[in-house]
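W.,

You were right to be curious about this one. When I first looked at the sequence I had no strong expectations either way, so I just let the prediction run and decided to look at it fresh. Below is the sequence, 486 residues in total, followed by the output.
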Amino acid sequence: MAVQLYNTLTRQKEDFVPLRPPAVKMYVCGPTVYNYLHVGNFRGPVVCNLLRNWLEHRGFQVHFVLNFTDVDDKIIKASVEQQVPPEQISEKYIFEYKKDFAALGLRAHEANPTVTGSMPEIISFIATLIEREHAYVTPNGDVYYAVRSFPGYGQLSGRKVDDLRSGARVEVGEIKRDPLDFALWKTAKPGEPAWASPWGQGRPGWHIECSAMACKHLGEQIDIHGGGTDLMFPHHENEIAQSEGALNERFSKYWFHWNMINFDGQKMSKSLGNFTTMRDFLQKHHPEIYKWMILSVHYRNTADFNPEVMDRAVTVLGRIYSALATAESLLPHEGEGVKADPAFEKIAQETWARVEKSLDDDLNTPEAFAAMFDFLRQFNAQVKRGVKVSEAAQGKALVFRDLIRRLGSMMSLFQQPAASFLRDLDDLLLAAKSLDRAEIDKLVEQRAAARLAKDFKTSDEVRDKLAGMGIAVSDTPNGSHWEVAK
């Protein structure tokens, strides 16, 4: 079965056939770097990480470029407020973004171009648009794109030029031929960073930057252009007009958009003040929790971000990693010398076929996880924690571990050593309940001693005390184990 992706441009799922298979050129709009990024900004990186991994699993060779906007009004504002040069602001937050990105365990891109590092290409791109009469220079040195010069304007967002014009307005100081026209080059203002151009000192508009950087690093045509749905109009619509106006070719074959994250029913954004930075989130929660929250919802659906969703993620991850811990406890180092159980291997193959069918269908992660949980339930039914090590148990453990790790490798999930992950998870839950690990260990040891002495009254009393603290204890032939009840 071919990989199918939803193409925003055609508003339907299509078989993915790149321009020059097996090569795939993918460009994604990156962040404007003036502060720490909030958790909503990382939905795209997590989803696109899966997209690239899955396409490579299916035999494609993906060249993935994500840019940084390091020249912007918000960066200039932050530099004025902090009394430091704008480049110091942008360099700092590019570094911080990459730090959060790495903490999430996502794969690095082939290139991360910046606006400041692409100025010659941006200026050249604008000059081409002027030459082809898609842009014009105003008397004060601003350059605007003439929207009505491009007949296809509105094809991505489904908006009509005449409808847009009725709601358009001209800002104070702008000299436009048409209210719909947008800036490609802005004349320098006192105290702002500026670059020399044929139209005078100034800096580029936001939209032209991505057209120029995509062309510089991937060529005149690309296979996939990605971004959040909030970028569809006007940013991506303007990119199409610029790129196709300058190059006379289709810019991107597929447009890949992911939906927003809501917090308590509202879009998460800095302007609303209802956001959590990824740095703050990662200081309190394991990165697996965020990735699960994002990937458990289809990328084209709105994702909720609230304490209840986080609690569900913890519960689910606890189930998965508990089963992985059981599997790992039965296996020698890396499973060396263990033979896969034939019957369970057949179940795994059927499960993987379901996973492939789901992810081939526009990255349907909820369906892929449903297949995984069916597989997990069968493993838990056949292999219990504390079970005696046997050839059959080891064979099933090997098959289970390998399939979960294989699926997880596509999503940058489930790659942590299970025992240490569960300990980290319990530490987070203990902190939330203001409980001390040493105190729990002491009570569990006290209960174990009572059981050994056949003092079942004391044993039951300690178990009840632990349960009241939110601690679940399980007894196996290999001893007692505890975890925070989820």
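Here's what jumped out at me. Residues 262 and 304 are 5 Å apart (CA to CA). And, maybe more interesting for your project: The radius of gyration is 27 Å.

Coffee later to discuss?

I.
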